[in-house]
Amino acid sequence: MVNIAVLGYGTVGSGVVEVINTNHDTVNSNAGVEINIKYVLDLRDFPGDPVEKILVHDYESILNDDSVDIVVEVMGGLEPAFTFVSKALSKGKSVCSSNKELVANKGPELLKIARDNNANFLFEASCGGGIPIIRPLNSSLTADDIMEISGILNGTTNYILTKMSDEGWDFEKALKKAQECGYAERNPEADIEGYDACRKIAILSSIAYGKTLNYEDIYTEGIKEITTDDIDYAKKLGYAIKLVASSERSGKDIYAKVCPMMVGRDNPLFFVNDVFNGIFVKGNMLGDAMFYGSGAGKLPTASAVVGDVVEAAKNIGKTIPVRWGEGKLELSERGSEEGRFFVRAKGAGEAKKAEINKLFGQVEFVNAGKDLETAFVTERMTEKDFEASYERLEDKITRIVIKS
Ligand code: HSE
Prior knowledge:
Blueprint: E1 2-7, H1 11-22, H2 24-31, E2 35-41, E3 55-56, H3 59-63, E4 68-73, H4 81-90, E5 94-97, H5 100-116, E6 121-122, H6 134-140, E7 146-152, H7 155-166, H8 171-180, H9 189-192, H10 195-209, E8 219-220, H11 228-237, E9 239-250, E10 253-264, E11 276-283, E12 287-294, H12 298-314, E13 338-346, H13 350-360, E14 363-366, E15 373-378, E16 381-382, H14 383-392, E17 396-402
Parallel strand pairs: 1-2, 1-4, 2-3, 4-5, 5-6, 8-10, 10-17
Antiparallel strand pairs: 7-9, 7-11, 9-10, 11-12, 13-15, 13-16, 13-17, 14-15
Helix pairs in contact: 1-12, 2-12, 4-5, 5-10, 7-8
The structure holds L-homoserine.
C-alpha cells in the first residue's frame, strides 16, 4: 500500500479525492499497488464530508508520519506550499503538485531537493490542466531538440474570447461564467492579464530547452483591451483572436511572449475553443505535434494530479530523469522577430491611408463596416520596425500580432 496526503481540499483537492475514489480499481491496477488517502490537510472543517475522518489541520503530523510516501500539493500560492513541499521532498516523500506559481518560481530548487533525496517532484497538472504535456516532453520527445512550443494555456481567457466571439457575450458575463465553472484563478487578474499563461509557458520552455526560463523575463500582455470590434475585424480576415503563449528557438536565439494573437485556420490553435487548451510542439525530427484537451476544471486537473501519483507510486525511492536542468535560459532581445501586424486607427479617407502607407509601406486595408476608423494588416516586418512606425501613427486604437 502507498499512503498519500492531500494538502488542500479546494476544487482540485476534492477532485483528487473524487478521482481516486471513483476510479479506485483502475488507479490501483495502473500503479500496481493500492493508493490510500491517509490524510487531507485543510484549515477548514468539512462536517458531514467523508474526508472528515482523515482531515488534519497540522502539517507536521503528515511530515512526521513515515508511512506517507506521496504528498499531493493542491493548495496553490507560494507559501506555505513551498515550505511544505520542500520539507516533504527533504524527507524522501515524492510530491505531486498542480501549483504553477510554485513550479514557475521554485521548480529547479524543488527538482534538486527531489533528486538529492531519491524522490520525485511531479507537476503535470500545472500546465494545460488535464492535457498530458510535461510527461511527453520528459519521456516521449527525448529524441528531439524542441524548436517551438506555442499554446493556448489558459482556459479562462479562451472561454471568454470564445463566448465573446460565438455568443456575443460581454467580457464581464463570460468571466462570471468561467468563475462559476471553477476555471478562473482565485484572483482572475492572473488569467486576464496573461500571468497564468506566462508561468505555464515558462515551465514548458524550461523543460523543453533544459534550463530555467524566468517567467518575469517574458513579455506578457493580457486580453483586457480586446473588444468586440477587434473580434469583428478578426472574423472579417478569417482569423480568431486567442491568447497565445509561445517560445521559439531560431538558431541560437530563443524568444518567448504571451499576448493576444490573430490566428488563422491553417494553425491548429484556431480550432481550440471554450475552456480547452491546445499546445503545439515542433521538434527538429518529429516535426509538428499538437496536444489538446480540457485546460482547467476540477476533474481534468485532478486526473493529471492522480496520474502523477500513479507515476510516483511506481517509482518510490528512484528519481525519474527530467529535461529541466541547471542554469538560466537567457531570452534574446525582443524586436528582431518578424511578423505581420493588424492595426486600427481613428480617421478615415485617403489622407489617413496615405499616412499609413508612408509609415508602414504596402498594407492590406480591412473594412469591417466601422465608421471613422481605418484598419489594416502589415506585410512581414521586424517587431522593432513595426513598433517604431506604430509609435508614430496618429490616433492609434490598437494593434494585434498575427500568428505566423
Ligand atoms: N485559471 C486557470 C485557467 C486554471 O483558466 O487555465 C488552470 O490552470
